[in-house]
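Feature request, filed as a ticket because there's no other form

It would be nice if the structure record came with a short human-readable summary line next to the tokens. Right now we just get the raw output. Example of a typical job, pasted below so the devs can see what we mean:
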Amino acid sequence: MIEIVPYRSAWSDAFAALGARLRAAVGERVLAIHHIGSTSVPGLAAKDVLDVQITVGDLEEPLSEALVSLGFDPRPHLIDHCPPGMTLAARELEKRVYRHDAPRINLHVRAEGRFNQRYALLFRDYLRAVPMAAHAYGEIKCQLARYFPQDVDAYYDIKDPVCDALMAGAFEWARATGWAPGPSDA
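Raw output as currently delivered:
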């Protein structure tokens, strides 16, 4: 079931504790650990699931043993969706995914500088900087969960293009502000 809840300040604290555990487990083998997704945007309604991005220099970096020791389950290798109207090489969208069920965490491992690694950080930073975009995005998610609470495919089939539309503004905002990915959160 898809349930969107009001923003919880506890998400930030939960990420801080998780980020410290992740950093202790993976050390300097990773370039950055970032809190991403809706739970990383103050005031934004979200599913009660932390999204974390680990940035590596190479997707073949051996992290699985350390992440499994923290209770994460590896998932099949995935490719992030390509925004409509763009043509990107598969390697620009490739990632590794791990999940944790209690608490619920999605861990995305992406390679530094690739489109999908930058997309997640730019999306987060844009929503943090532009409250109108964040509020509109939150409302869309609430309505999608209301209309499609049991249909995950429908939820994402609509939500992903909405994110891509918001990213059109984010790309312009990034150019105007000189945005670059910030330092690691953990």
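Something like this underneath would help us a lot:
The first strand starts at residue 32 and ends at 36.
Strands lie at 32-36, 50-56, 73-74, 78-79, 94-100, 105-111.
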